[in-house]
Design goal:
Distance between the termini: 117 Å
Low-confidence stretches: 95-102, 105-119
Transmembrane segments: 38-59
Keywords: Membrane, Transmembrane, Transmembrane helix
Number of strands: 2
Radius of gyration: 33 Å
Number of helices: 12
InterPro entries: OmpL37 (IPR058230)
Strand order of the largest sheet: 1-2
Shape: extended
Number of domains: 2
Length: 371
């Protein structure tokens, strides 16, 4: 029995077959690599969207989401009211002269609890407030928020959403301008405290100053991110500016503590004092004063003794309103300081209940032609 030998492929056809096989194999490998890269990019994008949270999602005008939006606007208005009220000029001259000796209008360090002093002449007060851009913006945001709340209770969710969004848009501009002023004040305080601390060569004061500049840079980063974000992401901008203002307040706290530490002798600092266990127990039992009162009393003591200046003028800008150290300390603890009034309370008196957007009505029925 003869066994046929396998047919030999000519060399020309053999090379063509090898080239065709290698080409198909290479194309399949490239296709697999490109497909894997596309899938990986899609996975990364989906992860970023999910991690970013609810701030990137649009809010639909239904009852649940509008309730959340109303709560956020209430918190944002309450927070910015303290900032804007303290940045406004003094309107109660009688209380301004004793603010360094007496506690401020709000003696408790609680946010949003303020006592409006009796300011004579409401017309004169409204005239002064009308010249403040911050009050006009706060009043407009408060009016839009009020309209949104009223329409929400009437179950008109579409118009309520428009008014609440308009309030957020106005608050976004107010938050941005307020954040910018806080950054300027924080930088002025830190630059003013730098020469004092460098000359004192105090390690604790230098560390506090370093922390202050760190928070200032962090607050500036928040401002930059909020400024460069989408112009219609109001909730995201409000969140960033609000956190930036809080961080700027912390930077000012470090600046004040650094100035106090630079003027305090080493033997008077608790870190260098010799204490025993009985002294620590007695100090814990007698500890009734808050940190706000401790720092305030120390600032008043150092100002009276000439160790610190109460008014700090920005360098190169002598015509600008000087920064009051005690007023900055009150604002750091979310307290409306003496001589100021709550602008939110004043704007509540000017809210117009008839300023709501008119509801859409059906057109009138045309009269029948009489033949």
């Amino acid at each position: 029995m003869k066994i046929d030998k396998p047919r030999e492929i000519p060399p020309e056809k053999r090379m063509v077959f090898y080239e065709f096989f290698l080409e198909k194999k290479t194309e399949g490998r490239y296709w697999k690599i490109e497909n894997a890269m596309v899938c990986r990019i899609q996975t990364i994008l989906i992860t970023i969207i999910l991690v970013s949270g609810q701030l990137l999602w649009a809010v639909s005008p239904d009852q649940i989401n509008l309730g959340i939006l109303i709560g956020e606007n209430k918190i944002n208005l309450k927070f910015i009211n303290i900032c804007v009220s303290n940045l406004a000029p003094i309107l109660d001259e009688s209380a301004a002269g004793t603010s360094d000796k007496n506690p401020p209008n709000n003696t408790k360090a609680e946010a949003g609890v303020a006592v409006t002093p009796d300011v004579p002449g409401k017309e004169e007060l409204y005239k002064k407030l009308g010249a403040l851009p911050s009050y006009a913006s706060l009043k407009k945001a408060n009016q839009s928020d009020f309209n949104g709340n009223m329409l929400y209770f009437q179950s008109n969710y579409s118009l309520s959403f428009k008014n609440l969004r308009a309030a957020q848009e106005e608050m976004k501009n107010l938050y941005q301008s307020t954040h910018e002023q806080y950054l300027q004040n924080s930088r002025v305080l830190l630059e003013y405290a730098s020469p004092l601390i460098v000359r004192s060569n105090d390690k604790i004061a230098q560390h506090l100053l370093r922390l202050g500049f760190r928070d200032l840079k962090n607050s500036e980063d928040h401002f930059t991110i909020a400024y460069n974000s989408s112009p219609y992401q109001f909730r995201y901008k409000l969140l960033l500016h609000g956190e930036g203002i809080k961080i700027a307040r912390r930077a000012r706290k470090f600046a004040l503590l650094a100035m106090i530490a630079s003027k305090t002798p080493a033997e008077d600092k608790p870190e260098y004092q010799f204490v025993n266990l009985d002294d620590i127990r007695a100090a814990v039992e007698k500890e009734n004063t808050s940190d706000y009162e401790k720092i305030r009393n120390t600032l008043i003591n150092y100002i009276d003794n000439g160790l610190l200046q109460r008014k700090i003028v920005p360098p190169g800008e002598a015509k600008e309103r000087p920064i009051d150290v005690l007023e900055v300390h009150d604002d750091n603890y979310s307290i409306i300081t003496s001589g100021r009034i709550s602008l939110m309370d004043v704007s509540n008196e000017e809210i117009r209940a008839d300023n709501m957007i008119q509801k859409e009505t059906l057109p009138p029925i045309p009269a029948k032609n009489q033949n």
